[in-house]
Amino acid sequence: EHTAGVHGLPKIILREVRGCSAEVYLYGAQVTSWKNEHGEELLFLSSKAIFKPPKAIRGGIPICFPQFGIQGSLEQHGFARNRFWIVDPDPPPFPTITSNKAFVDLILQCSEEDVKIWPHRFEFRLRITLGPGGDLMLTSRIRNTSTDGKLLAFTFAYHTYFAVTDVSEVRVEGLETLDYLDNLKNRERFTEQGDAITFEAEVDKIYLSTPTKIAIIDHERKRTFVLRKDGLPDAVVWNPWDKKAKAIPDLGDADYKHMLCVEAACVEKPIVLKPGEEWKGRQELSAVPSSYCSGQ
Ligand code: BG6
């Protein structure tokens, strides 16, 4: 379903039979809403989000490409999140049965302007799928379309903002005991200590070579998000906390309490493609009720 979003920006709504839905802006190919069958919003979107190019939309799932963070020649997190993508009118079929799956394929082609700031040729195809149980799948295929033998090297993240009741009551499982780069300390390398990750201050860490499954447990709402990833070895965890939140103009002062970014990413070692080569990176999200006592 094609419709107009904030400021008339085109967006697409995916719906699933039980009433789950997802909304995607062509601007940034950004998922801005993901709702379960009860109509509850599962992604955080800032009340102060600015839906005006070239500003990226604050919340949902921004795509960080071709550069994650500030390390590189481009603006922070690259340009994919502030370009208009096009809908593929004739998407290739699923390898398996397509029934019960709502999906859209969006394409980012490098414009001549982009080639000036980043001298590479690529095609980026993003498939966004809402599965029968309401699971949200994002699959990126990036191909090096260079004709002059040039390698394509990039870093990447699905910068997912999960909606949580109170971030200080949230626990993340699957990252304990791993090595991480601390973005708050010049990307110095540390090893995570302790049983599970909880939040009581600003955090901005790049966990390295993580398991493919990460759980985000919202104790207050009795909900567990399960993030599964493929082709993306790292995971970024970010919350700006109170002071940093005040310095972000498109984030409400208290918004940090209701969001947590856990991002399937490839940051430490860039992906390098030879001409004609394609890379595939997937993130799958599900949200399930969790039992209060066990936290599972
Ligand atoms: C996170 C980074 O992924 O994104 C942080 O690790 C950064 O360092 C945050 O501050 C938000 O970035 P932006 O550009 O959307 O404000």
TrEMBL record:
Native source organism of the sequence: Carpinus fangiana
Active-site residues from the entry: H159, E263
Any one GO MF annotation of this record: glucose-6-phosphate 1-epimerase activity
Family named by the database record: Belongs to the glucose-6-phosphate 1-epimerase family.
GO cellular component: cytoplasm
Coiled coil: none
Gene Ontology biological process terms from the UniProt entry: carbohydrate metabolic process
Catalytic reaction annotation: alpha-D-glucose 6-phosphate = beta-D-glucose 6-phosphate
SUPFAM superfamilies associated with the record: Galactose mutarotase-like (SSF74650)
Top enzyme category: isomerase
Binding site residues for substrate: R58, Q76, R81
Matches recorded under InterPro entries: Aldose_1/G6P_1-epimerase (IPR008183), G6P_1-epimerase (IPR025532), Gal_mutarotase_sf_dom (IPR011013), GH-type_carb-bd (IPR014718)
Protein name: glucose-6-phosphate 1-epimerase
PANTHER family from the UniProt entry: APOSPORY-ASSOCIATED PROTEIN C-RELATED, GLUCOSE-6-PHOSPHATE 1-EPIMERASE
Alphabetized UniProt keyword annotations: Isomerase
EC number of the protein: 5.1.3.15
